[in-house]
C-alpha cells in the first residue's frame, strides 16, 4: 500500500518523461504524496506545470527558488522521502549518481536520501548496452539502489531493443511489492 508514503520522483531529460505524468497520476491515485524534482533538461520534454498540477505540489528544479535567497533544501528533501524514484533516469543522471556528482538539485537530493532509491532508466539501446552505463548500473546496485530494468521495444530513435522506460504500472507495482514486503524487488 502506498497510502501516505512520501515519494520523491526525479524526472530527467528523456523522451520518456511524458510517462512521468502517468506515474504521478497513479501514485496519487494510490494515495501517495509525490514531490517531483526535475533536471533542467527534463523541462524540455514535459512541463513543470503538468507535473505540479498532477502532484498537487510545486515542482522543484533549482537549489534557489528566487533571488530572495529562499532555497530548496536537498537534505530536508532527502529525509522527507519514504522512497525516491528516478523515472525516467537518463544515462547522464545515472552516471552522476553512480559517481557521486552533485551539480543539480536532483543529484544532491539523491546523495542526501536515506530512503530506498529506485532507478527506471530510459535511453537508446546502444547507450543502455554501453559498458560504461552497465557499469554505472552495477555501481548503483552496489550502493543498495534498485534498478527497474528498461523494457524491450521500439525506441524513439526508430531502433528496436532494450531501453524503454518501464511502464508506470510496473513502477508502481515495484513500490507496492517493496512496501508490502512481497515479491521480487528487482
From TrEMBL:
InterPro entries xref list: Flavin_trans-like, Flavoprotein
Domain of life: Bacteria
Domain Flavoprotein: 5-177
Ranges that cross the membrane: none
Source organism (scientific name): Pontibacter silvestris
Pfam families in the record: Flavoprotein
Protein name: Flavoprotein
Amino acid at each position: 500500500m502506498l497510502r501516505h508514503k512520501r515519494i520523491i520522483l526525479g524526472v530527467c531529460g528523456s523522451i520518456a518523461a511524458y510517462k512521468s505524468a502517468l506515474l504521478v497520476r497513479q501514485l496519487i491515485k494510490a494515495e501517495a504524496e509525490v514531490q517531483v524534482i526535475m533536471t533542467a533538461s527534463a523541462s524540455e520534454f514535459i512541463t513543470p506545470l503538468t507535473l505540479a498540477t498532477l502532484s498537487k505540489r510545486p515542482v522543484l528544479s533549482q537549489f534557489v527558488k528566487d533571488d530572495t535567497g529562499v532555497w530548496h533544501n536537498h537534505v530536508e528533501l532527502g529525509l522527507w522521502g519514504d522512497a525516491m524514484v528516478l523515472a525516467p533516469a537518463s544515462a547522464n543522471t545515472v552516471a552522476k549518481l553512480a559517481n557521486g556528482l552533485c551539480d543539480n538539485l536532483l543529484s544532491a537530493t539523491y546523495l542526501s536520501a536515506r530512503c530506498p532509491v529506485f532507478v527506471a532508466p530510459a535511453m537508446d539501446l546502444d547507450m543502455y548496452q554501453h559498458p560504461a552505463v552497465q557499469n554505472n548500473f552495477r555501481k548503483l546496485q552496489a550502493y543498495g539502489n534498485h534498478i527497474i530494468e528498461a523494457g524491450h521495444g521500439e525506441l524513439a530513435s526508430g531502433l528496436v531493443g532494450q531501453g524503454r522506460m518501464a511502464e508506470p504500472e510496473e513502477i508502481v507495482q515495484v513500490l507496492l511489492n517493496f512496501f508490502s514486503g512481497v515479491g521480487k524487488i528487482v
